[in-house]
Amino acid sequence: MAHLDLQEIEKLNSRYRANFINSITGYKSCNLLGTRSSEGNSNLAIFSSLLHIGSSPALIGFVLRPLTVRRDSFNNIKQTGQFTVNQVSSEFFKQAHQTAAKYKEEDSEFEAVGLTAQYLDDFKAPYVKESQLKIGCTYKNHYLLEENGCILVIGAVEHIYFPQAIQDPDGFLELNKINTVTAMGQDGYALPAFLGRLSYARPGSEPNFIEHGS
Amino acid sequence: MAHLDLQEIEKLNSRYRANFINSITGYKSCNLLGTRSSEGNSNLAIFSSLLHIGSSPALIGFVLRPLTVRRDSFNNIKQTGQFTVNQVSSEFFKQAHQTAAKYKEEDSEFEAVGLTAQYLDDFKAPYVKESQLKIGCTYKNHYLLEENGCILVIGAVEHIYFPQAIQDPDGFLELNKINTVTAMGQDGYALPAFLGRLSYARPGSEPNFIEHGS
C-alpha cells in the first residue's frame, strides 16, 4: 500500500496534487448550476460539490472556489437570489463537462455546449431541459471558509421536478433509472449500478435489503 | 414529470421527506469516520457528506447533523484533534451501514459490526483495516450553519493510504478498481462503472476521452 504523509503531499506539483486530492474523497454528485444575471445573461456550470444540508427545511449547499469562472454563477445568484440544480446523466455528460471551458461573460454556456435553457413556473433562473431531475433554489446564506477562501453557499429547495416512475412509495428516488452520473476527481465520470437499499440499522440485527421502501 | 413546490414539500411527512430530499442531490461519497476518545474508546460512523474543500493545502469537510449518534465522533475529534476517513467498498458496505445503529457509548462499532481497527504511523484515530483508501486528518475548524444547526467540520489531510496500482501517472485515482461504493438517499448504495476521463474543456473544441492521465 502506498503511503504519503503531509510533507510528501506538499511536495507534489500542483496539477498532480489537484488530480490526486480531488480523488480521495470518493464519488461526488454531478450537477449543472443554472443562473441568470439581472441583464438576462444565462450561465451554466458543472460542479461536483453539491451537498445535502437538511430535509426540514429542505436545504442544499455547494462550495465555490475563490477564483474560478463560477464567480459568474455567484454574482448571478447574489443579483437574482435564484439558481437551479440539474442532475447530469450519461446522455449529456460530455456537454456538461464542456461548460467548464472559459467562455466570455456575455456568451451563454447553454448555446456553446448544446444544452437547452428551460424556464419553469416563473422561476428566473434557467433549468436544463435535458436533465430529468431538477431543483429550483433560492439563495439563503453563504459562509467564507477561512482556511482557503472558498465559499459555502446555502440554498433553500423551492421546486423539484423528476419523473414519478423513479420514486419509491416512501419517497426514495432510484437515480439509476434516469442514468444520473457521478463525478471522480476533476475530470472522471462513472455510471452507478444500484446495489439496493438496506434496512434501518439496529444493534443486534443485521441489515437486509429492502424493496421499494417497504 | 412530477413537480413539487415549497408548499407541497413542506406538507410531506417527515420520513417521506427525508428519503426524498436526501435523494435529490445525486450520488454521494460513502466513507467511514474513525475516531477515538481521550479515554481510548474507538468510534466508527458511516457518513455521506464528505466533501473536497481544497488541494493546496489539502482540505476536506463534512457535515454533522445537530442531534445524532455522530456527536460521539465530534466529541472525540475535539478531544484528540484527529480523525480518519475510510472509503467503503462493495465488500463491506453492509457492515459500514450497520455502524449507524445506536450502540452504547462505551461499545465500539468496530467490534459490533465486524470491522477491524488499525493504527498506523502513530496516528491516535483508528483506520478501517478492510478499507483500501484511507485518510488521516487533523481537525482545523468548524462552522455552525445557522439555517438548521448543522456543523461543517474542516480537516487537513495528513496521511493518505491507497494501492499504487489504482493511480494514473498524473495523480488521478481509479476508484472503480477498489470497488468504492457511492451512497443514495439515506439507505441506498450503488457501485459505479467507470465511463472515463474527459480532456480539459476549452471553448471551440469538444471534450475527448483521455487515457491514464495522458
Oligomer: homodimer
Mean pLDDT over the full residue set of chain A: 94
For the biggest sheet of chain A, the summary is: 7 strands, antiparallel
- Terminal Cα span of chain A: 41 Å
CATH architecture of chain A: Roll
Helix % of chain A is: 10-25%
Q: Indicate the overall shape of chain A.
A: globular
User: What is the ordering of alpha helices and beta strands of chain A?
Assistant: EHHEEEEHEHHEEEEEEE
Q: Class of chain A in CATH?
A: Mainly Beta
CATH topology of chain A: Pnp Oxidase, Chain A
Coarse structural class of chain A: alpha+beta
* Count of the domains of chain A: 1
Low-confidence parts of chain A: none
Strand order of the largest sheet of chain A: 3-2-6-9-10-5-4
Total beta strand runs of chain A: 13
The Cα radius of gyration of chain A reads 19 Å
Q: What fraction of residues of chain A sit in β-strands? A: 35-45%
The greatest interface here is:
A-B, 116 and 116 residues
Helix segment tally of chain A? 5
What is the CATH homologous superfamily assignment of chain A? Electron Transport, Fmn-binding Protein, Chain A
From the structure above, extract its key features.
homodimer; 214 residues; alpha+beta; three-stranded antiparallel sheet; Pnp Oxidase, Chain A; seven-stranded antiparallel sheet
Please characterize this protein's 3D structure:
The structure is a homodimer of 214-residue chains. The first copy, chain A, is of the alpha+beta class and 214 residues long. Chain A has a single domain, classed as Pnp Oxidase, Chain A (Roll). In chain A, 16% of the residues lie in helices and 36% in strands. Chain A has a 7-stranded antiparallel β-sheet. Chain A is globular and about 60 Å long. Chain A starts with a strand and ends with a strand. The mean pLDDT of chain A is 94. At the A-B interface, β1, α1, α2, β4 and β5 of A face β1, α1, α2, β4 and β5 of B.
